[in-house]
TrEMBL record:
PANTHER family: NACHT DOMAIN-CONTAINING PROTEIN, NUCLEOTIDE-BINDING OLIGOMERIZATION DOMAIN-CONTAINING PROTEIN 2-LIKE. Residues 30-121 form the NACHT domain. InterPro entries: NACHT_NTPase, P-loop_NTPase. Coiled coil: none annotated. This is NACHT domain-containing protein. Pfam families: NACHT (PF05729). It comes from the Eukaryota. Transmembrane segments: none annotated. It comes from Rotaria socialis. The lineage of its organism: Eukaryota, Metazoa, Spiralia, Gnathifera, Rotifera.
């Protein structure tokens, strides 16, 4: 069923070359929205496009291509010149003549802006009507990337990055294991392993997930194979959890000089208890503020919460999870006065989810329950809540799981129901298909109900929404009652 889903995705999509991306733009001002799921390659696309332009391979009619990572915007007011200067000349003062020259290029339409990460913009900037983003949107040639749920701007030309094809995966593995000290057969061994496990093969089409799988294959191949043979499954949550364990293992060996031998997940977490507590608190505080940038004030708040000083643990910043904007290892000095960010936004969401799970497993779960109820339909927290579901499945403790699903399924509820439908699917996907999940039959019946409704409706928008949600789910693809109704959807 998983292979069928991916065949359907690619069959119904039209591939487009980067150089032709503006061909569908009918207006004089070229504007394209590029969407894609977490880890799908939106930032890589922007960097690749900028590099290709610099090499003379793309869009020669533009005098300049400016790549901006939107999560670095911290102030409400910028001019176009200010933004370029902040991103590329932070330590220099540009001459007035150069600033005027750049402004003239913008006015003449000779600058292309690559704006990466609309979904990572701080809310105070996102909701500012006269912000620089709106200026660029209204006056400049640009490409904007975002996760699909976050965009509120209207674009006539939209492109979706859908991830690797089967052939792309094989090519990536060949390149990933082509180092002289690595066995030439490793790429083929991993490819065979992925194809034998259809759930893992499914998530491997996301570039970031495939990168993490390759890292784990190198570091802990036997454990991964054993786990896969035992469960025939590797959910996204488990993938991130294993990656964190791998980073902890490397940290314990290099920073704490601890001998690692067959440590369990519980042992790793106990040995890195303070470190994980720190990352969970930092991630959650930043997520509450809808920020991908860790402001120095967050560290002050976290110190008050955890009850110890970050400066006493300088190795925290060298684990490979948090980075500062100067991209330098900090060594024995903890510079908490500089903004930081998680190496991937999805890592921030994973650690924030771990914070919520810690609350659900504690003797006082009220704060976590209230957070879930208040934010369950906010699309910015969808991946976080999926991670919560997956982590609770790993712990397999009945009461916290019940707290979570009751918060998801009870009031307040989405009035229309489609957001609720999508939420249930994304959270169920991380449960490994366990039949013992609290209120599972109720959720399956709800999904089947919406499938039947969509089949009988004349409005194609609803039907397309249901199809897309089901295509993202591999657990539900194997649910017999859903399979029967899915064939009805495909027949329409």
């Amino acid at each position: 069923m998983s292979s069928y889903i991916y065949e359907e995705i690619y069959r119904n999509s039209t591939a487009i070359d980067i150089k032709d991306i503006f061909d569908k733009c009918k207006d004089q001002r070229k504007q394209v929205l590029i969407t894609g799921r977490a880890g799908i390659g939106k930032s890589i696309f922007c960097r690749y496009a900028a590099y290709q332009w610099a090499e003379g391979q793309l869009w020669p009619h533009y005098e300049l291509v400016v790549l901006i990572t939107l999560n670095s915007l911290t102030h409400l007011k910028y001019s176009l010149v200010d933004l370029m200067e902040k991103q590329y000349f932070p330590c220099e003062n540009l001459s007035d003549s150069y600033k005027q020259y750049f402004k003239s290029l913008c006015d003449e339409g000779k600058v292309l802006w690559l704006l990466d990460g609309y979904d990572e913009l701080p809310l105070n900037i996102l909701h500012q009507p006269d912000s620089l983003l709106n200026t660029i949107y209204q006056t400049q040639h640009h490409i904007l990337t975002s996760r699909p749920y976050a965009i509120s701007l209207s674009y006539k030309t939209q492109v979706e990055i859908i991830g690797f094809t089967d052939a792309n995966i094989a090519m990536y593995l060949n390149q990933s294991f082509e180092q002289p000290n690595e066995n030439e057969s490793e790429s083929q061994n991993l490819l065979t392993y992925l194809k034998l496990n259809t759930k893992i093969w499914g998530i491997a089409h996301i570039p970031l997930h495939l990168e993490l799988i390759c890292c784990l294959w190198r570091d802990n191949k036997i454990s991964m194979v054993e786990d896969a043979l035992e469960t025939q499954s590797l959910e996204v949550t488990m993938l991130y959890d294993k990656m964190v364990q791998s980073l902890c293992q490397q940290y314990l060996t290099e920073q704490k000089h601890t001998t690692i031998c067959n440590l369990t997940r519980t042992s790793f977490r106990e040995k890195c208890k303070k470190e994980l507590e720190f990352f969970e608190n930092v991630a959650f505080h930043a997520m509450k503020d809808f920020s991908a940038i860790i402001d120095p004030k967050v560290f002050d708040e976290v110190e008050k919460t955890i009850g110890w000083f970050i400066s006493d643990y300088p190795q925290l910043f060298n684990i490979g999870i948090l980075k500062s904007f100067n991209d330098k290892r900090i060594g024995s000095h903890v510079d908490v006065k500089k903004p930081h960010y998680f190496v991937y936004l999805s890592f921030q969401e994973f650690f924030a989810a771990s914070y919520v799970v810690t609350g659900l497993r504690s003797g006082r779960p009220e704060n976590s329950i209230n957070f879930i109820k208040a934010n369950k339909y906010d699309q910015r927290f969808r991946l976080l809540l999926s991670f919560v579901s997956g982590l609770l499945t790993i712990y397999n403790e009945e009461q916290p799981i019940q707290y979570f699903w009751d918060a998801i399924l009870n009031a307040p509820l989405d009035l229309v129901g489609l957001r609720h439908f999508d939420l249930i699917i994304s959270c169920l996907e991380e449960t490994r298909g366990s039949p013992s999940i609290h209120r599972r039959k109720e959720m399956i019946d709800y999904i089947v109900m919406w499938i039947k409704i969509s089949v009988n409706m004349k409005e194609n928008t609803i039907l397309d929404y249901i199809k897309q949600a089901l295509q993202r789910s591999y657990i539900l693809a194997n649910e017999i009652s859903i399979q029967k109704n899915t064939y009805s959807v495909d027949a329409t």
